[in-house]
Amino acid sequence: MRAITPLNITPEPLYLNRRAFMRTFGAGLAVAAGAPATLLGAPSEPTDLPTSFKDITHYNNFYEFSSNKQAVARMVSGFETTPWQLEVTGRVAKPALFDVEELITRFQPEERVYRLRCVEGWSMVIPWHGFPLARILEAVQPTPEARYLKFITVHRPRQMPGQKNGWYHWPYVEGLRLDEALNDLAILATGLYAKKLLAQNGAPVRLVVPWKYGFKSIKSIVRIELVKSRPTSLWMRAAPHEYGFYANVNPKVPHPRWSQASERRIGEFRRRRTLMYNGYEEQVAHLYAGMDLKANY
Question: Who is most buried in 102, 144, 255, 276, counting CB within 10 A?
């Protein structure tokens, strides 16, 4: 791990004056007010500065609204994020329907500063506020038959004009293996930069799995199903030769149309070397021991 100084972690004036961060978690993932935040994972060669709040909220992949990243923030004004409920069902002993405010009160989001690496070759560093997905799983108690999690985004074509595009099979679906979901790095995020999530960032609740390409971190979730068989995601269905189930960041395995060896950090002009598992190899490599990482992309 490498601590980032307060100067580096707080490019936004609002963040300099923030109140106490959420309770300390592990080796400094959440920090008390005034203390330096910590970016978990192996350090990259250049400095890992947090991406500005403006860039994080105005450069967004959210195909439910538009494939134009700069347009999404302008198109979400009519998207309603309250009230909102998250259903957790399937192979569980205690299925549940959570109100988002209940999630925040019950599971107490904490700060997690993570890298985000898009499959398209760009990246960010984002100070999320969220809680481990494992806490919800503990509450609903997966049965022995539960092997995967299937995540489903809200389906509202009237408010999300991109869902009228017939090329994709809506609603957006993603999946994780149960052991991946139980890894402490996997969180459900409800905020960033000490603010509630904005619609363009996946409000009011989204998945964040920082060792995987960004399209795995499904936004605006309404349902999580624990299932026996591996789910087929939206991108697997749309382009199975390009997008596999695991989608682990791997600089050694190129996308069919471009290299994944380097990335462009938003807000920078130079490219930087991409790290295996996005810098989280120490925390997640054991999940894929013995697997052919090229075949299981």
Answer: 276
- Alpha-carbon distance 23 to 15, whole Å? 17
Its pTM stands at 0.88
Report yes or no: 127 and 193 within 8 Å, Cβ to Cβ. yes
d(CA 144, CA 248): 26
Q: Which of 3.90.420.10, 2.40.37.10, 3.30.200.20, 3.10.450.50 is the CATH number of 2-288?
A: 3.90.420.10
| Whole-number CA gyration radius for the chain | 18
Task: State the Cα angle at 225 between 63 and 82, rounded to 5°.
Answer: 55
CB 91 within 8 A of CB 227: yes
Joined together, the tokens standing for residue 195 give: 């603010």
Residues paired with residue 92 on neighbouring β-strands, in sequence order: 142
The domain ranges of the chain are: 2-288
